[in-house]
């Protein structure tokens, strides 16, 4: 009589949680967003006015696009401190293509986005091939991009006065041309379209799967035969791509490339990603959560400004919320 394997014990088998940690953090972030809307709506009658809502959407656009790219990086367990100044050098190069070299508008836009993607490629190569920690590599790139912005522009803003149509890229309204009552700037539409693309790539493609794999256990992923260096370079290139796109949007919004602008944007983008539930330890994160996090920051800043709260206190409140978001991430990881 053959031996039969005993069935696995139901008492010791691990249970699958009813609600994932990702979903929990997204719900918390969305609840915080709704709570902020309620508080500021009660505190000020001006908060829910249409023009103010459009202002919040527009304020979220650039930070939201930057946060999309840095979501990929943080999911891998890395960090990208260069996205703010990469955005700036991308804006400067867009102006260089269009204004100085007199190239067609589409070529100038592609050139700006490609500049960001190339900076991200360099970040990824330095990190993957030279084994320099992401914090140090991207910190160095932050200063390189900042310096190049000043050198290329000659320390002066570059204006798009000869190409007024460029401003319509971000500040025109495709939606308003169909529904005049809802003149929402194209920058907001670009952010949402970029978010959809980023979400599909993260959830449905090989790049997305390996992004999560790198963050969950990079060594195990490498030992399973995956070229982790190549995928890490791809992730940082994606981050640079979105920084380049943000550079085009902010240049169009301001109708100029401001070479001294950009440093500090990376902190807001990282804060949005963390508030949205992406774990700084890697392996977890969603694009939807990131967009919610970006809106939390914009609504908070806008509401505090309407209530005439001094800017220094706005920064204190924002910092406290980021610390709380990281603490909640630590708590839920311990429980899981």
Q: How many individual β-strands?
A: 2
Q: CATH fold name, please?
A: ABC transporter involved in vitamin B12 uptake, BtuC
Main sheet attributes: strand count, strand direction, barrel closure:
2 strands, antiparallel
Tell me the number of helical segments per DSSP (H or I, 4 or more residues long). Answer: 13
Structural category is: mainly alpha
Rounded Rg: 22 Å
Percentage of β-strand residues: under 5%
CATH architecture: Orthogonal Bundle
Percent range of helical residues: over 70%
Residue stretches low in confidence (pLDDT < 50, at least 5 long) are 1-19
Q: Which series of helices and strands comes N to C? A: HHHHHEHHHHHEHHH
Cα shape: globular
The domain tally reads 1
Look at the structure and give the CATH class. Answer: Mainly Alpha
Gap between N and C termini: 43 Å
Summarize the structure.
This protein has a single domain (49-335), classed as ABC transporter involved in vitamin B12 uptake, BtuC, CATH 1.10.3470. Helices cover 72% and strands 1% of the residues.
